[in-house]
Amino acid sequence: MADFLIQPMVLWALRIFLALLFVAAALSKLRHVEEFYGVVRNFRLLPDLASRVVALVLPVVEAAVAVGLVVTPLAVPAAVAAAALLLVFAAALAINVLRGRTQIDCGCFRNGLKQPVSWLLVLRNLVLTALALAIATGLPAAVPASLTEGATGLLAGATAMLIYLSASLLGGLSAAQTANKTAKGR
């Protein structure tokens, strides 16, 4: 397994996937800053002022991580930062699930389809954390990618992101349908 994770094509695929994930999250939050502030505040983990600061700073940090993942000299620290962020996100989700606050929006993407927090989202963030750590540990041992390996990794990472976004949208649709059924039943 370790040999697989130091293959240049695999590392490029993981780097592109996570970079696209972070840039999409950052851009969606930047387009909806006030709504995202409400999401952060609704997690009830920070004082109001700190929630405002997080809502303003987090998208910028996510964008910086995305850039760092594709710039080879910055990729290892960016992957460590990505893993740290994803672990914090998993912890915030887990705390709210344990509190029974599963109807709040996860705040992952501001695409109009809200996803309630759940253990599945905690698991998703832990898997993403593992991918970021695979980059951080595998990249120093990897040989540089050839043009073909880099291009294939780029396409694989972009494809993985499209699949991820599709699954996220489907999850949001499912949550919206459940919310509509619940509202009609009242």
Automatic annotation (TrEMBL):
Residues 9-136 form the Methylamine utilisation protein MauE domain. The keyword Transmembrane applies. The chain crosses the membrane at residues 6-28, 49-72, 78-98, 119-142, 154-176. GO terms for biological process: methylamine metabolic process. InterPro entries: Methylamine_util_MauE. Its main location: membrane. Pathway: One-carbon metabolism; methylamine degradation. GO terms for cellular component: membrane. It is found in: Membrane. It is a multi-pass membrane protein. Keywords: Membrane, Plasmid, Transmembrane, Transmembrane helix. The keyword Cytoplasm does not apply. May be specifically involved in the processing, transport, and/or maturation of the MADH beta-subunit. This is Methylamine utilization protein MauE.
